[in-house]
Design goal:
The protein is mostly helical and 256 residues long. The chain has helices at 2-5, 8-27, 32-41, 46-70, 80-96, 103-122, 139-156, 161-173, 177-202, 207-231, 233-255.
Length: 256
């Protein structure tokens, strides 16, 4: 591992991969499906690859979530219950990961992601800008359960968390896809940052690579978020569906 990481080209192509992952992740999620295999290819053992990826993805999700917030496409006061659920779920998942067997997740995940793509493709379209606030009965309960469930999943496994946030937000609150993307990016940042603390305590982070990739991810996420906001649902929707279908195919190939 050390010999490979000393090669200058590794420090060049890993940030390039991170830039692409940040751009895609800010729009549709799924950036980890690029960065984790890249880190493994560079020679990092799995636990170190996952921790380093959490460091870099925290940078990227922070840039994307801040961009959506600054453009008034996400109101944290309306989502505080979801944020708390996500935080506790991510902490629980990160601590419980060693107690769980991931084989069934690896086989079920492609089916779930494929279902998410189909839902997004065929769901009734909500007019952009029509709904800015989550609505419905038992809102705190829905947000808390959604946050804890997806936070736990991100802490235990990770791939596709942003996509699941987007789809579940569309289904539960009938927001347009632009506002749902703002929610997804912010909650993804919360679960990333929470899991990152656990990986840091365990010493499962290559700080040099993580920071280099994190800087590139931030730039990619900034550009991706601005592209999503500028072009709206007509841009996000096809990119989202394409990315999640590729994610499902890749994970199915690896698991089955």
């Amino acid at each position: 591992m050390t010999d490979l990481l000393l090669q200058p080209d590794v420090w060049l192509w890993l940030p390039l991969v991170a830039f692409a992952a940040g751009f895609i992740d800010a729009i549709a999620g799924g950036g980890g499906l690029l960065t984790v295999p890249a880190l493994l290819t560079a020679g990092l053992p799995p636990h170190l690859a996952l921790g380093t990826n959490k460091l870099s993805s925290t940078f990227g999700s922070s840039a994307a979530s801040w961009t959506f917030f600054k453009k008034r496409l996400f109101d944290p006061l309306l989502w505080k219950t979801a944020a708390l659920g996500t935080l506790f779920g991510a902490l629980f998942g990160a601590l419980a990961v060693d107690l769980l067997k991931a084989e069934w997740l690896e086989k079920a995940l492609p089916l779930a992601i494929f279902g998410a793509a189909l839902y997004t493709l065929f769901m009734p379209k909500v007019q952009e800008g029509r709904r800015h606030q989550p609505q419905g009965e038992h809102l705190p309960l829905k947000q808390g359960v959604q946050g804890f469930t997806l936070g736990t999943y991100d802490g235990v496994f990770g791939p596709g968390t942003g996509a699941f946030w987007t789809v579940s937000t569309l289904a539960l609150y009938k927001l347009d896809i632009l506002h749902a993307s703002g929610v997804a990016r912010t909650m993804n940042f919360i679960s990333n940052a929470t899991s990152l603390v656990t990986f840091a305590i365990l010493g499962h982070i290559h700080w040099g690579l993580g920071l280099a990739m994190g800087a590139a991810l931030m730039v990619g996420a900034f550009l991706g978020a601005h592209s999503a906001i500028r072009f709206g649902g007509k841009f996000i929707r096809p990119v989202f569906i394409t990315v999640v279908l590729i994610m499902a195919a890749k994970l199915a190939w690896e698991a089955w």
